[in-house]
Amino acid sequence: MTPPPAPPNRLLLGFVLMLVAFNLRPALSTVGPLLHAIREGTGLSAAGAAVLTTLPVLCLGLACALTVTVIRRIGPDLGVLAGTLVIAAGLALRGFDGLVPLFAGTAVAATGIGLANVLMPALVKRDFPARVGFMTGLYTMMLCLGAAAGAGAAVPIEQAIGHGWAPALAVWALPAALAALAWAPFARKASAGASPAPNITRLLRDPLAWRVTAFMGLQSSLAYVLFGWLPLLLQDRGLSPLDAGLIASLTTLHQAPGALAVATLAARRRDQRGWVVAVLAVTLAAFLALAFGPDAVRLPAAGALGLGIGGCFALGLTLIVLRAADAASAAGLSAMAQGVGYAVACLGPLGFGLAHEATGGWGLSAALFAAITVCAGLAGLGAGRDRQVGA
């Protein structure tokens, strides 16, 4: 089949892809900082807050099931455009004050994120075949920066606007709409040729695809444990809520350079098993140092933890691209790895919290974190070998 024509300006294409990538996380990271204000303003219960924070992860996974249909009907380029527009619509919906718009907008935005998430590796594989590592690292870095921007700016924006939490959430629809507008010309040009749909059934019978999926899901589980529980763990160690938040923000900020470096360097090698061991070892050692180490190592451990977990995420996406033989396989493997992976990732923070509740301490929770890390390493050793799923 004749491949679609190359975009006339690859540098501009890369820039717009990064703009889209930046908007794939604020919808997820802006709710947490405003959760206290949301609960005060709406009477949302603790159980409702738990559902609100879990809902996006579930929608991310469910959205992956739509990917094959989207590719078959409109292609990956228009699929990314559609996903970005859905994100903007969901974010705007959250601006209507109330629990129904909040939950509905969150679900809609997460569905758009899931769709674009899956299609981005396929576009990198197709449009930047000689620089997949660098481009994967770059857009993963932008994902991390978008998450950090959303988390860090949510409260200041709420205070600046002065009309409650709803406008502070809805304002993020503006950069998402801008990203969709910037991507639209590339979507029209890149969609001129038909796009082959991935064969998910074949991937489900491929052991390598399952190893990539297991690594993606388990490393995502580690990340969601940190997102959900690191601030509380630090508060139990004597830090104030403000200081605990600053340490967590420091960890988040360090994910960006970790993602860029690991993806770029790991893709230069045919075998990524050494990188799997390295990033997981750094992640586990830094987490244990932050959870149980002396105060003197707190800041360097937080930075190292961010580098490690950012590297894990980037490596998961890089393995999707490298283990796929072509763009269609990359889209299918991305759908499988992220769809199943996010379902697995939900279990990590749940088990971590239940272990803490059962014991009142963090020892059993840390042991669970270590066990997930080891399992991710075993999956990654299989996924990191120089092999590919079939074209």
From TrEMBL:
Entry keyword annotation includes Transmembrane: yes
Transmembrane feature ranges: 45-71, 78-96, 102-124, 136-157, 169-187, 208-232, 244-267, 274-293, 299-322, 334-355, 361-383
InterPro entries, alphabetized: MFS, MFS_Cyanate_Porter, MFS_trans_sf
Keyword Electron transport: no
SUPFAM superfamilies: MFS general substrate transporter
Swiss-Prot/TrEMBL keywords: Membrane, Transmembrane, Transmembrane helix
Pfam family, one: MFS_1
Protein name according to UniProt: Transporter YycB
Organism field: Methylobacterium trifolii
